[in-house]
């Protein structure tokens, strides 16, 4: 016998999975029925030989070369005993084998059917001759747990087990397991009854030998007999014995691990001691006297030398001065006693001790009887529970003949509860089929009669139209019971319906697969070979299905996948083999035309009854055109400046273009659903939601709101538009929208509005100034020519001011130095080619308020005009000095501009000949400026020229940038 390398493990010799790939014989129900009939007959006549008969039957029917049953040894869970064995290994019957050294141990641990090949490679003890080629084992159950295995062996290398062997072995194994439990329960009940009868006989003999105490003991026995509870028995006996002997206390209890437990007592004149008490004070030698049946008698606790001081104190505390203890039983840890105690010393007579012994024995007998009866009831209950909890329905019927001797009807003799659940019939025992159903199917009577006529068991599936049910029947005759048959059956109506539904479903699936434009496919989970492909495969792959499924079609499929995607596909299939559904995308190259196609496969595991992955199913979708369209759309979307997005359900975004992420910083997990609203300005979110709430009614929307820019945190204005995308039925399936940056446009528009308002304001002011200037000039002009000259000069001054204003930006101001220089240049007294007759001294860039520019310019122009006509700029020796400076006044620190206009070298006219009154310029300076500009002014005609001062408030930021 060759030995495998020692590195082999148990799973290396388990080949259970091979059964799924082996061909299997058709179910042989006739053989099965014959085997069951044989076992039923054995169960009836020789129940103790049932397991051996099962093994012999398996060998006789050719199911195996050897068959056996291994059960775990009672009291030794580490070993099996071959309690039944037949065939070529029959000589090993009765032998034992260690739990860990046998395939049986593996089957018990896993509690499942297993198939081994040459198990001696791992279990050397299984190497007996003839060698095992294959051994098939199933768990042998007692209730919910396995207690052994049923196994069959083929020694012939040419013979391999198949699915039919598995079915037969499981079927016969379940029957044998149920029968074994039934025999065990009956044996336990019989043994209990025998023990009870023996005990009764022994106690009866003892009663006859003690006739002098017969009256008391008979009365006690009569009183104890109806009791079934051990505590009640002990309580009654203690009371009767205490009253009979006139003692202080009688109790029944037991000692375990130095603890006395008193379950009940009868006390007279002393307290009850029911409960637990320590016995540690009593010497070991004294406690050694408590042997089974021993009577320990103490007449005087205080004087008995067997008791130490601690024990005496403890007894005295319980008011015990004398006692007799009868040891009813003793095991490794526990001592049961009947104790009689008195509160005074007492010399116990032999008659009293005999009475105590007699009562103790009766108490012990009654308690044991109660326990035996309880065990018997429990055993019978287990048998009844087994009978009533069987999944299969069971019935015994008596087949009836008519007057001509033909089988005509049948009467129910016995049924189990499963019968009613399988048939939905009322309790039938004692009634005939005709009485129950009115017009029953005659086939039932014919089948029962056939079994009685031929003596051959029958396995058949039969429908009962009256009940609308279909049954799987095992019918066999009961030997020794005339015209009676037993029927073991199951309701298979739902299974039949399920089979029909499965056939219909498979046909629907086939039609669906042929009509689908997607590929539906199924693979084996182990070899990954295709079992099923729909016609869509040929359209998408450009390859006939027959060619695709030939040879190693998994390898062939991988060869069609582009190398860059092959690892992804292999990984996806492996994940599904582990039970995880996946969806993955990959590309194939069609062998016919070399075209590259994009496929998306949704793959899922298909599990067997045990939860293992048996098959792999998948749906392959060709989305090449959709992907190309998506790429084109993506290129378009990513190339435009707008932020593009898609949404569903009134505002829940599903996708946004990369521009959105770049601008807002939100990634897909942040902007999906209503997350995009976080990027919208808090003040604008209500408007955004309101626009969406009206979108469905209006067929779209347009709204403006601000969106935060990630780069600098600035909120910029965007115009957002959305339009619905509809399917062919006109139903909105999603929304497509864009958000366009209009922040600069809004800024320019706002500035334009400001400028227009400013223009209107300045125009009104300018017209008012022109009108006022014209009126004043007209009043003082000598004639039209004089008016034209004066008015033209003043309009020129206004024009220069407007020119300065028009060149300013929105937030700029006219500066004083620019204003004075512009007026002097216009008069030709400042700039290139001009004599140095003007001196300017003051800071540059002093900003003037817009409201003061025109009035101040007119005042300066009047001063300059007078100087050019009459003063320093007219006379040859004249000189004009203009000086200005800033000062801060008041608590608020308001800036003021101070202007000092001083002419010198001017030949002034005689004051007596000077004209009275004031001219327009002086009136403007002395009256208009203080009134309109809050200015402070002086105007003095000195001996050598005019001296004028003007002080006016200016802008809070008095200097222009860069000044």
From TrEMBL:
The lineage of its organism: Bacteria, Pseudomonadati, Pseudomonadota, Alphaproteobacteria, Sphingomonadales. The keyword DNA repair does not apply. It is an enzyme of class 2 (transferase). One of its GO terms (molecular function) is photoreceptor activity. Its EC number is 2.7.13.3. Keywords: ATP-binding, Chromophore, Flavoprotein, FMN, Kinase, Nucleotide-binding, Phosphoprotein, Photoreceptor protein, Receptor, Repeat, Sensory transduction, Transferase, Virulence. Gene3D superfamilies: 3.30.450.40, Histidine kinase-like ATPase, C-terminal domain, PAS domain. This is histidine kinase. SMART domains: GAF (SM00065), HWE_HK (SM00911), PAC (SM00086), PAS (SM00091). It catalyses: ATP + protein L-histidine = ADP + protein N-phospho-L-histidine.
